[in-house]
Design brief:
Blueprint: H1 5-11, H2 32-39, H3 41-49, H4 53-74, H5 81-105, H6 118-134, H7 136-140, H8 151-154, H9 170-185, H10 188-195, H11 201-221, H12 236-245, H13 249-266, H14 274-293, H15 300-307
Helix pairs in contact: 4-5, 5-6, 6-9, 6-10, 6-11, 9-14, 11-13, 13-14
Organism: Strigomonas culicis
EC number: 2.5.1.21
GO molecular function: D-glucose transmembrane transporter activity; squalene synthase [NAD(P)H] activity
């Protein structure tokens, strides 16, 4: 956030070209691992040069489009829900586009997976919106503050987005938070549709685990005023449970349905966003139940040993 605007507008549009430049690096930007990554970018470029041309084309295309989108929102705020969706598309939906194209190109998944990128975009939006909601406390403390909550939503509950961190505004802040959750859960049906055809186990886990973590995170932040004062997140135990059990469609959807139930049980009957959230979650559960009927349950130990052979136990589970 401390990098001057003119530097960002100059550097971002040409950043995708640096995957072909083993001499380029940038110093003095970012913190921690981000700073280290830019300082050692020649290593990234050398690794990129070893990829097949069809993979490099996808990566460079997505990086270029993402950077141009970032430049757009560097010069204007996120005001409407349309702005919000577009911003999330640039920073996460395009990642879904790129990954889906790579999955199809490398033949790990059906070559037609990338014919329609609608669901992959929604996958990105669901993750990004969850992060934006959860990260309010960290983002508002940045200098200048990072504000991605759309005014079309928060403007109904306060004069300034920063005001929600004041405990005297807690009631309106929580109402706004729940409206943001309602906006996020609308992407769940597309997430389920995206996961359904995936056939490669490693790709399935790579895609499913973050999505299950997202619905679990929304269940944590919903109606939770602490979201405006600390970084609310799932416990380590709950996170590990998601990673262990989200290894196939049947079990991953089971975990997803479990968190839908958790969120449904928390719904405040007096909150204006409750009907919209309940409708989305109940429809998601119906879809999940329908899909799981056609799946063969995989015993836990068999799934664990087949996906993590490094545990050193041969899979002889019934």
């Amino acid at each position: 956030m401390s990098v001057p605007l003119d530097v960002k507008l100059r550097e971002l549009p040409k950043f995708h070209k640096h995957t072909n430049d083993v001499e380029w690096s940038m110093t003095g930007v970012g913190k921690g691992r981000e700073r280290e990554l830019l300082e050692n970018y020649p290593r990234v470029a050398r690794a990129a040069q070893q990829l097949k041309e069809e993979y490099r084309v996808v990566i460079e295309d997505i990086c270029e489009r993402m950077a141009n989108g970032m430049c757009d929102f560097l010069q204007r705020p996120v005001v409407t829900k349309e702005d919000y969706n577009l911003y999330c598309h640039y920073v996460a939906g395009l990642v879904g586009h790129g990954l889906t194209r790579l999955f199809a190109n490398c033949d790990f998944e059906d070559s037609h997976l990338a014919d329609d990128l609608t669901n992959s975009n929604h996958m990105g939006l669901f993750l990004q919106k969850t992060n934006i909601i959860r990260d309010y406390f960290e983002d508002i403390l940045e200098e200048p503050p990072r504000m991605f909550w759309p005014k079309e939503i928060w403007g109904q509950y306060g004069e300034q987005l920063q005001d929600f961190k004041d405990r005297s505004n807690e009631k309106k802040a929580v109402e706004c938070l729940n409206a943001m959750v309602a906006d996020a859960v609308q992407h769940i049906p597309y997430v389920i549709e995206y996961l359904k055809p995936l056939r490669d186990p490693s790709i399935f886990r790579f895609c499913a685990i973050p999505q299950v973590m997202a619905i679990g995170t929304l269940a944590e932040v919903y109606n939770n005023a602490e979201t405006f004062h600390v970084k609310v997140k799932m416990s380590r135990g709950a996170s590990c449970r998601v990673m262990v059990h989200s290894t196939d469609l049947y079990n991953a959807l089971g975990m997803f349905a479990e968190y839908c139930d958790t969120l449904l049980a928390k719904l405040d009957p007096n909150d204006v966003s409750t009907p919209a959230i309940r409708k989305c979650l109940e429809e998601a559960k119906e879809s999940i139940e329908s899909l799981r009927k056609d799946q063969v349950p995989v015993p836990y130990m068999r799934s664990l040993m087949s996906h993590y052979p490094g545990l050193g136990v041969s899979c002889c589970c019934p």
